[in-house]
Structure formats: C-alpha cells, structure tokens
Amino acid sequence: MNKIKKVLIPCAGLGTRFLPSTKSLPKEMFPIIDKPNLQYIVEEATKSGINDIGIIVSEAKPIIVNHFSRDEKLEDLLLKANKQKEKELIEAIGSMAKITFIYQKEPLGLGHAILQGEEFINGEDFAIMLGDDLIINYDDPSLPALKQLVDAYDKTSSSILGVQEVPLSNVSKYGIVDIKDDVSPLMEVKKTIEKPSLEEAPSLYAVLGRYVLTNNIFSYLKKVKKGKNGEIGLTEAIDMLLKDNKVYAYRFEGKRYDIGSKAGYVEAFIDLALSRDDLKGEISQYIKSLKL
Fold it and tell me: Low-confidence residues of the chain, pLDDT below 70?
C-alpha cells in the first residue's frame, strides 16, 4: 500500500499563452477528445493509488469546481433521455476521488500555490502534479508516471522529482537537475537550476510536472524570497531542501505533453486520438490524405 495518500494539483495560473481562449476557459479544462486535460491528470492520481486530491484554483475558475462536482440535474436529464451510458460517465466524474478545492487569491508562482495546500496536506508527505503536464505511459498504462515516483518514494522515504531528458536547446525552459550519477532510473540530486543557459545546464534532465515531496518542503517555501517577477518558486525551495536532506530524481517512463503550449496541446490531441480504437482509423486516413 502506498505511503503517499495526498496530491496537490495547482490550477490557478493565468494561462496567458492561450489567450483569448483562457479568458473564459482555464487551460487545464481544454478538452482532449472528450475529456478535459485535468480529468486525465486526476485519473492518473487515482490509478497511482491516491484518492485524496487537493486542486488549487482561483476564484476566477469556477468551471473546474463545477466539472468535478455532482450534477444531479444533468444526470436526471440523461436518465430521462434513456442515455444510461452517458449518465454513468457523468456520475463517475463526481465520485472518482475525494476532491478538495483550495483557493489561491493571487497568482504568485508555483511555490506560493503549493503553500496554500499546507493545511490540506496536514503534516504528511505528498505528491504534486502540474496541470500543464499530461503524461501517458502507452507501453504500460497500469504504471502511470506518478505511480513510478510513489514507488520510488516507498523505497527511499525521500523527495522524488520526476525527470526526463530534453534537447539541449530546450534546457533554458525548465528546472534542470545536477545528478551524482546516471546509472539507474533513480538518481541522487546535487542541485537544481531553474531555466539555466546552455552553458550553465549541468545535465539534460528536466523536472517535468511530477513530484513527491517530504512535508518539510513547506518550511523551505516560507523562506523563499519573491523573484523579480514577484513570484515564489518551488525550485528554489527544493534546492534549499536538498542541502539538508537527500533528494532523488526519477527518470519516469511515459510520453509527456506540455499542454501549456499550443504545439504540445495539438500533439496530445493527435496522439490520444490515434491511440483510441474508435478514432485511429479515421484519423490515420485523414493524416495520410494531407500528404505533408
């Protein structure tokens, strides 16, 4: 049985890269085929054995709260329309996990968002899943990315950062880890660097949207000073943490999509369509017809 019981999913960002769409629809709720991205992430948490989920939202995003709440009126309408399958789909959303909504009044960075979840976490070690990062393990759907990190935590009782290698040209977009060795999926971290230049990057391993952190991260988050952008960073707190505690990077299996970017969103839409038996034939035929 997993030792990690709770997860925080920050969803209070402004989503400026997708304006004007995000003026009314949070990017976490952008549909990928017939489900919003955030639902895929919640389902990954439950498949990883975590059913106590804190979603960090802003008051400007009631649509997230509405989606994961029971809608008995809609369920009743579907039942009267003899759409039992659709009714069960809607019912399942409201009962898939115990979801607590945590409000972040100002978008002051990822570290600040995580701090809002301290009371919900209540002294436990916990996981974090970023709403921008959709990760699909096509080779083994029973072993999602978060489950891989949770299993690593169960062996080490230490903080675990989910990483994958990125092209050298992209290291300046991510938090990059400096590791002590590169001999297994589980590697001890020496330090982290947020968005380094090509010359500063100590490796190609980027932290990509999945974490398991020991509870003392909150004490370090409270020490982080706001950056030039007025935000409190999570990477800076992790760098403080690893000076006093062991922190590991885990090279997880699975394909990661940056849903916060337009190209990443389109890639996820195409790949997930091609992975479905009810769509892959028609979509494959259409792609071939384009003669790119």
Answer: 1, 12-15, 60, 292
